[in-house]
Amino acid sequence: MAKGNKGCAVGIDLGTTFSCVGAWLHQESRVEIITNQQGKRTTPSVVAFTNTDILIGEAARNQAATNAENTIFGAKRLIGRKCSDPTVKNDCKTLPFKVVANSDDEPKFVVNHQFEEKKFTAESISSKIVKHMGEIATGFMEQAVKKAVITVPAHFNDSQRQATKRAAARAGLDVLRIVNEPTAAAIAYGLYKRANSVEERNIFVFDFGGGTLDVSLLAIKHNVFIVKATSGDTHLGGEDFNNNLLNHFMKRFNTKHNKDMSKDPRALSRLRAECERVKQDLSFSKEVNVHVDALFQGIDFSDKITQAKFEDLNKELFENCKKIVEKCFIDAKIERSSVHDVVLVGGSSRIPKVKQILQEFFPAKAIHNSINPDEAIAHGAAYLAAMLNGDIKNAPQLVLSDVNPLSFGTNTRGDVMDVLIPRNTPIPVTKTMEYVTVKDDQTAIRFKVYEGERKKASENNLLGSVRLTGLPSAPRGYEVKLTYTIDENGILSACLMDKKTNKKCNLVITEDDKGKLSTDEIAEMIESAEIFKDEDEEHVKKAKARNALDDYVYEMEKALKDNHVSSKLSSEDKGKIKHAIDEAKKVIGAKLDEQDKSVYKDHLKAVKSVFEPIKKKIG
Ligand code: ADP
Ligand code: MG
């Protein structure tokens, strides 16, 4: 008997390490998380190639130790990204399988399948996983699953989202929506029901999975979801705890038996599997026994570990979690006290210390973790899928919105970045700034459109420029208006307008022009802004000092040109002023990078000492 209606729609959480599928049970009016053939509710995001088969999920993971070079995991890290991306390069160094670039700089996994070398993109690996999840659901629903909502991290850029969507389409699914993982988690908890149309409800989602930590701040107001900020670490997750445990037990074994098992892959793989079990058990017991039969050279390994020791071994990981949470609030410029709900998802959020850290960070706040943390995202996605498929009566119309991950700005005098739309601004959005010409009779003006966080404009990513020519002849200070707009699809457009004549220059920048910055490139840009903060601030100070000198010199020039003022000046004073202007202009004309800030300040003092007494004299 069919358990759904109108063709079945499911929600798929396509995770870095585990995937999960859920469906709405029409008759029971609830979401069911569907178990795989092994009876597990989550399925490893692993695809393995052998001489006879393509294995997916549990079966693939179980043979990983003996077929490492043909067992692909973590495809989500590479999807929609380029091989030249520095972190793709970095990731590939430690992978047990081969990754090469195709002619489009797209990463491809190289495997041996049926005695032949074959290459697969991350998109096609993900597609196999999505298809497998669809089949798990089809088996349970007793009808073909045709439609799905697929989740992606909130920080995924357009190219990563598009690639995920294509992966699902290749798996034969009609994608109802690509939805942000934290949004799906908030939907799972029905948090939109608590939001009203007057007040915004702030939700903090902490998603701690197998290989990544993603934290997001959402706001809900009258069924509109907005991602206000995201932060995270693409290399912090459950596997790091396993690594620390593995090293700890390996040392204990080696010391106790005076051996070195570190070069034995089979022993390592068996000890790692035991570490995974021990870690999971430590989330529920204060002390856990460890045992591996004939671990190395026939020697059994027996040990135990307490929760306290586990926390001590992973101190640094917990510290990093805290820092990431803090950063999210700094970015969003929101007080943590204004958070209404905290949602914990991802398998690693089961670790008691993680819960404790969050409880301490949000005292007296309700922490939602009643839904299995590794199922909550699929749960929300399944609910949304049913809603979009018209399976739920009186379902609210949820609107899911987004933020821009990097700031958009322009260059102003002295290569200083002026930000029009700061990063993490909810889109769609429009911002306008007014600028003025810097020279007399300036007939053309150009603004470069940059994205990035550096204060020195030219260090940011140049997207294009807008230019107006044929400005009327006027003294400097002639006004123009620069407007940036980001529409709901994340497309930026810039418009430069002459305020007097309304003459315009338009520029539309699509995702393609943006160079499809990957998540890590975005993270890198944000990080480099941090690294170069002092240097950039020095640059801004220097530019300001030069601008101040330039402004003052302009005033002196104006005085000379103004007949009324000029007639009062003695020829000696005129000569002095002219000389001072010429000297200052040499300094102003020199390259900013090659000058010291004090040069501008000293020159300003020097020209002032000439011009101020003259000004006083003539009144
Ligand atoms: P993904 O990163 O793919 O979204 P999940 O959210 O399913 O993955 O999280 C998987 C991680 O959760 C794994 O590293 C697993 O070891 C960890 N995990 C699962 N159960 C527990 C538990 N009881 N205690 C600690 N960690 C757990
Ligand atoms: Mg996940």
Description:
Helix content is 37%, strand content 28%. It has 619 residues and is α+β, with helices and mostly antiparallel strands. It folds into 4 domains: 9-236 and 317-402, 2-Layer Sandwich (Nucleotidyltransferase, domain 5), CATH 3.30.420; 238-315, Actin, Chain A, domain 4 (Alpha-Beta Complex), CATH 3.90.640.10; 408-516, Substrate Binding Domain Of DNAk, Chain A, domain 1; 533-618, Substrate Binding Domain Of Dnak, Chain:A, Domain 2 (Up-down Bundle), CATH 1.20.1270. The strands form 8 sheets. Strands 1, 2, 3, 4, 11 and 12 form a 6-stranded mixed sheet that branches. It has a 6-stranded mixed sheet with strand order 19-18-13-14-15-20, sandwiched between helices. The N and C termini lie far apart (98 Å). Mean pLDDT is 90; it is low at 1-5. Adenosine-5'-diphosphate (ADP) is lined by residues 15-18, 42, 209-212, 237-239, 276, 279-280, 283, 346-348, 350-351, 374.
Characteristic terms for this protein:
4 domains, disordered N terminus, 16 helices, alpha+beta, binds magnesium ion, Actin, Chain A, domain 4, binds adenosine-5'-diphosphate, six-stranded mixed beta sheet, 30 strands, 37% helix, Substrate Binding Domain Of DNAk, Chain A, domain 1, Nucleotidyltransferase, domain 5, 619 residues, single chain
